Amino acid sequence: MKRFLLILLIVSVLFFAVAPVGVSSAEALPYEYAAAFASLYPTRTLSGDLEQASSAVLVSFLEALGYRVETPTFVHQIESTNTSAKITCHYNHVLGFKDNGKGKTVLIGTYYGCFEPSGGDGVGEGAEAALSVGVLQYVAAALSTLSCDYDIVIAFWGGVALSDFNVEKCGVDLDTLALYINLDGVAAGSYDYLYCDDVKRAHATYFKGVIEEAKADILDPPAYKRAVTYTFSDGTYLQAHLGILGANHAFLAEDIPCASFVGGAWTYKTGVYRYEGKGDVVGTSEDTFETIDRRNGGKAETEKRLLAVSNVIIKGVTGEGLSAALEKAEKEVSGADLQSPLAYYLILFIGAAVVILLFVLLIVRQGKDRRERVWEDAFRAPEEDAPDEDSPFEEFEGEKKQDPPKADDEDDVFRF
User: Fold this and answer.
1) Are residues 154 and 51 part of one domain?
2) Does one domain contain both 163 and 65?
3) Pair (48, 190) in one structural domain
C-alpha cells in the first residue's frame, strides 16, 4: 500500500511539474503576439533604429517555426520632420519561406513599421500596424504545421512610410505567385472588410464562402472604386479607397490575384479614416492599444476580430477549393486588365459594335413590321375596308363606285 501511495505521489508531482510548461508554451493568440511586439518596439519609424531591431525579432520568430528566412535590404532617404536635411534610412523586408514542393506560392504579408509622426504629434505605440503583425504571426505559426496545396511565404514588409513598394524587388518570384493576401489595419477601425479587386473574381467568391462558413464578421466593401490622382501645389497624391492602401495595390497592378483584409470605415469624400466620425489613429499619439480597444468596444472585441480574420486566412489557404478558385481567377478579367489602354480601346470597340448591332436590328425590325402590314392589307376582307360609322361618306355605303362616263371623242386608242 505504501509503495502504491509513493508511486501515486511521484506521478502527481510529475504531472503538475509538466502542466505549467505545456500551458506556457501553448500557441499565443493574435492579440498577445501584437501586444508583445509593440511593447518591445513601439515607435518603429524609418528615422529611428527600432524598425531594424524589430526585424531581427521577426527573423528569430520565423526561424523558430522552421521557415527559411531572407531579409532583402533597401536604402531610402527621407526629409527630417524638424529640419530640411535628408536622413538616410536602411530598412528590410523579413521573408519566411515554407517549401511544400508545390511550385506555386501563396504570399501573406503586412507592414511591420510605423508611420512617421504627423505634425510632431508622435506615433503612440504603433498599435495599428502591430495588430496585423500579430495576425500574421498567428497565421505563420499555424501554417508551419498544416498541409497546403501551395508553398507558403510569410512577409513582414519594412519601410512602411514608402509609397514606391516594388514587387520586382520584394524577394518573391512573381512567376510562381498564385495569390497575395494582404493585412492592413485589421481590427483597427469601425469594421473589417475583405477587398479582392475592383472586378469580382473567383477567389473573392471563394473567400466569401469561407467567411460565411466561419460566421466571421468581415464585410464586403459597399462599392469598388479606383484610386484618383490629385495634383496640388506641394505635390501629387493618390486619393485611394480603403482596399488599395497596402502593398496589395502593387500586386494588383501585376494582375496577381489578391485578397486584402483591411480595417477601417469605407468612405470616398475625405480619403480614408479608420473610424467613422473619429478620424484616423495612424501617425498620431492615439495609435495605442488602449485607444483602439476603447473605440472597438473593449479588448475582447479587438481579440475576437483579430482571431476571426486569422482563422479565415488559415482555412482559406488550406481549403480544398482554393486551387480551383485561383485557376478560374487567372482566366477572368481583372481590374488591372480594365485599366490598360488596350482594354480601353477594346471596350470602346465592343460598345460601338453593340450600338451598331442594335441600330441594324431596329431597322430590320421596322422593315419586317412594314412588310407584314402590307401583306395583311393585301389579304384583308372587304368588310374590313368599310368606312367608319362617323365617316362623312356613310350615305354612299352600298353604292358601287363607277368611273365617270367618257366623252365620245375619248377612247383608249391613240389618235392619228
Assistant:
1) yes
2) yes
3) yes
126 and 176 together in one domain: yes
Strand partners, 89: 76
Could you give the CA distance from residue 140 to residue 142 in angstroms, rounded to a whole number? 5
**Burial class (CB within 10 angstroms; exposed 0-12, middle 13-18, buried 19+) of 64:** exposed
The number of residues in the chain equals 416
Please give the Cα distance from 57 to 63 (Å, whole number): 10
DSSP 158: -
Place of cell 431597322: 363
Q: Are 283 and 117 in contact (CB under 8 A)?
A: yes
pTM comes to 0.73
Closest CA to 129 of 63, 237, 41, 49: 41
116-135 tens-digit pLDDT: 776 556 778 889 999 999 99
DSSP state of 319: -
- One domain for residues 178 and 271: yes
Our CA dihedral for 92, 262, 39, 78, rounded to 10 degrees, sits at 40
Q: Is 105 inside any structural domain? A: yes
State the SS3 of 69-91: EECCEEEEEEECCCCCCEEEEEE
Kindly report, residue by residue over 52-83, the tens digit of the pLDDT: 889 999 999 999 999 999 999 888 777 665 66
Same domain, 311 and 340: no
Grid coordinates belonging to 91: 530598412
Which cell numbers hold the place of 87?
A: 536622413
Within this chain, do residues 324 and 339 fall inside the same structural domain, yes or no?
no
Range of the domain at 46: 27-332
**Secondary structure in 3-state letters for 208-221:** HHHHHHHCCCCECC
Domain count across the chain: 2
The one-letter code for the residue type at 33 is Y
- Per-chain mean pLDDT for the chain: 78
Examine residue 116 and state whether it is found in any structural domain, yes or no.
yes
Q: Are residues 69 and 191 in the same domain?
A: yes
Amino acid at 56: A
Q: Where are the alpha helices (DSSP H) in 41-149?
A: 50-64, 127-143
Q: How far is CA 169 from CA 172, 173, 174, in A?
A: 8, 9, 10
**Strand 105-111 vs strand 151-157: parallel, antiparallel, or unpaired?**
parallel
